Amino acid sequence: MKRSHVALMGTLALTLAGPVSPALAATTPAQVTTGFSGTAYGSDIFNADETLTSGPTASSSISCTGATGKTSSNTAAALTVPAVGNVGAATTSVKSRVTATGKRIESKSTINGTNLLGGLITAGAIMPESSADKNTAGAFAGTNKTTIADLKVLGVAVGANPGANTVLDLTVPLVGSVGKITLNGQEKRLVNGAYRISTTALRVEVLKSGLPGLRVGTTIRLGVAQRTLRLRSRAIFPAPVSAPGPCLLRG
Length: 251
Fold this sequence. Notes:
Elements: H1 2-17, H2 21-25, E1 31-46, E2 53-54, E3 60-65, E4 71-76, E5 79-81, E6 85-87, E7 90-98, E8 102-116, E9 121-135, E10 140-148, E11 151-153, E12 156-158, E13 166-172, E14 176-191, E15 194-206, E16 219-234
Antiparallel strand pairs: 1-2, 1-3, 1-16, 4-7, 5-6, 6-8, 7-8, 8-9, 9-10, 9-11, 11-12, 13-14, 14-15, 15-16
């Protein structure tokens, strides 16, 4: 009788607990998903001691989401920054979407003309674009593109599609070289499962004195488009609040 009683209790325990398969689900490998983050802005002007700050203007962003079909856009009026010059009106956008081969996040920025440093740098429309893709096989890819209409540096015309990370000397008449200009600044890198793409259409760095009103360390960025694709494990059951990672997507 004792053995029958034990067997009965064991059967009852299994019945109350339900099928075994749900318990096994806790050990099922986590599902891999894609996290999108992206930012675009028109201009960002600052110096090392923060006595001069302007921007980021017309900032658009999508922050840490696994959803496609997300969009963000913004605009900003033209502005004048003392000692720096005039920056045209800005329009920006960021979008996550499904493609024929996988998923993509893309961002764009447009500045409608600029006149910097007393005419040392002038341009029409400035348009950087960036995109990051992950295909269905899990492979990453990205594109950077910059178009700058009617660009002139020190009075010399520069092509509308400068090569990646083109560096020009910033020379002031009767003073000499005071810094550098980087056109179509590009970056692509994969770090800890995060694929990052960045495009900066035009960056000016003041490295020596000689420009009236501008300190050494002043940086001018026009037309910035950045995005990140992150591969994250999405747990079948919600992950602990203390789980690491800046972009943890939960089931």
